[in-house]
Amino acid sequence: MAVVLFLLLVSFQDPGSNWPSFRGSHARGVADGFATPVEWSVPAGKNVSWRTPVPGLAHSSPVVWGERVFVTSAVRVKGESELSSLYGSPGYGAGESVEDEGEHAFEVFCLDKKTGELLWKRTAHTGVPKIKRHPKSTHANSTPACDGGHVLAFFGSEGLFCYDHAGNLLWQRDFGVLDASAPGAADLQWGFASSPVIHDGRVIVQCDVQKGSFLAALSLADGKELWRTPREESSTWCTPTVLEATPDRKAQVLVNGYKHIGAYDFAAGTEIWKLVGGGDVPVPAPVVAHELVFLTSAHGQFRPLRAVPVGAKGTLTTSDLAWNQPAGGIYMQTPLVYGEEVYACSDGGVLACYDARTGESIYRERLGDGTSGFSSSAVAAEGKIYLTSEEGRVHVVAAGPDFEVLGVNELGETCLATPALSEGVLFFRTRGHLVAIGEAARANAKER
Questions:
Q1: Domain residue ranges of the chain, discontinuous segments joined by +
Q2: Residue 104 confidence class, pLDDT cut points 50, 70, 90
Q3: What is the pLDDT of residues 405-415, one digit of tens each?
């Protein structure tokens, strides 16, 4: 029995098998250890394991634990929600809020990983959204988080909901109205997007809004608030990252931001270090590798890509950074650190590669013809990087210092959500479906 339990524990901890939150474990976006596809076509049915309809409009990513895939959505009760202001489209960049969409059902879906069969659906809340959305955004932007026994769905002002893997509601929390609006324009409501993170029996939430921004830790068991730290911060759409403890360092919560980028003590919520400035509408999550914290933002006058040593303390200036690329930042995507390089793809599809330890520029190359936008964050596996355009075209690029496109593949639908990876299979959340790409899933499905 002890051996069986040990093997199950190892399996569940395998980063190539589980994808527990936004961009997988610690937002790294990497799942090595299994062969992954280079070529497919959803319209042609090539190398597609399954394709399951998911109603509503959402940019939340799928997450995976064991044999289950979880995803959320906001389903308009009357009529279909429209998605507009995509890159290069008429009205691109417009920030006006979408009006009068009426009631929505805020839903959580659980699917079988190998077959795509819907195992259960739960409606967390029904009502008129308390905050409006950007025309390119949705009312379900936050990616769920999960572990071996819990699934967290965060719908912003509609609340945080915790289920078990059978779909039973364990607890819920209401944080009040979380109004993430355009800087200096409180009437332009753009919707909430920060995703929850599970670590060591706690749930971390970052709520940077117009008034009363805060970072908080909750008990995963019952949702009880363990600490809440106010933040002097305007609206951001960033997901926090937990830096794991070592014998020489306590665990930290890392946050991106504009007025307050920094690290907090995981146990107590006290500030460890702080950095100010960058793009004024921050979206990307922090990423840790090589004992460095990689941070980026790009909106308005400034667009830095920066690396902060994990041992930093106090209020930081440029001289405290490991390196800084003042004009290397990206807006929507979280950067990818894979091997010895860090990759940053712009909204317009320009992929930049830097030496992760020094910040030295290695290459800048365009994906496609420059007419497509890229909102989904890159993920990587087995020496390949996957970058998805808003129109649903996935560019597969070889990892390393030499730029090489290995393939360009069609999803057949708009896609702004970041994919999940599990056991060599890519799970894409497109405009109306959840799609599994990869021969491993196809083989397993046939065995069932």
A1: 14-447
A2: very high
A3: 999 999 999 99
Instruction: Report CA 417 to chain centroid distance, whole Å.
Output: 8
Q: What are phi and psi of 14, to 5 degrees?
A: -65, 115
Starting at the edge strand that comes first in sequence, how are the strands of the sheet with 405-410 ordered?
Answer: 379-381, 384-388, 393-398, 405-410
Average pLDDT over residues 291-310: 96
Question: Of 72, 209, 59, 196, whose CA–CA distance to 137 is shortest?
Answer: 59
Kindly list the distances between the CA atom of residue 28 and the CA atoms of 50, 248, 285, 287, 384, in Å, as whole numbers in the listed order: 26, 22, 10, 6, 14
Contact 29, 377 (CB under 8 A): yes
Tokens representing residue 402 in the block: 């030499």
The pLDDT tens digits of the residues spanning 220-238 come to 999 999 999 999 999 999 9
Distance from C-alpha of 42 to C-alpha of 428, rounded to nearest angstrom: 11
Q: What's the rounded Cα separation, in Å, for the pair 392 and 386?
A: 12
DSSP-derived secondary structure letter, 423: T
For residue 441, the model assigns a pLDDT of 42
Residue the block writes with tokens 């999940």: 420
Q: What share of the chain is helix, strand, coil (3-state, %, to 5)?
A: 5, 40, 55
Domain 14-447 has CATH 3.90.1150.10: no
Residue percentage of the chain with pLDDT more than 70: 94
CA distance from start to end of the chain: 26
At 228, is the secondary structure helix, strand, or coil?
strand
The type of residue at 279 is G
Which position has the token pair 């659906």? 121
Residue that is written with structure tokens 């990206």 in the block: 330
For residue range 47-80, list pLDDT tens digits in order. 999 999 999 999 999 999 999 999 999 999 999 9
Give φ, ψ of 310 to 5 degrees: -65, -20
